[in-house]
Amino acid sequence: MSQNPKARAAEVARVSYGKLLAVLAKQTRDIALAEDALAEAFTRALETWPHEGTPEKPEAWLLTTARNKMRDQFKSAAHQTSVSLDDIEPVMNDLDPHNIPDERLQLLFVCAHPAIDENIRTPLMLQTVLGLEAAQIASAFLVPSTAMAQRLVRAKKKIKAAHIPFIVPEKSQMSARLEAVLEAIYGAFSIEINDTDSNPNDNEDLGLEALYLADLLVELLPNEAEVLGLAALLNYAASRRINSEHFTPLKEQNPATWNTPRAERADNLLARAKEHNKLGRFQIEAAIQSVHSQRRFSGTTDWVAIVQLYEGLLHLAPTIGAVVAQASAIGEAHNAKAGLARLGQIDPKTIENHQTAWATRAHLLAEAGDNKNARTAFDKAISLTSNTKVRAYLEARLALIQTSN
Question: What dihedral angle (degrees, nearest 10) is formed by the CA atoms of 307, 203, 15, 17?
Answer without folding.
Answer: -100
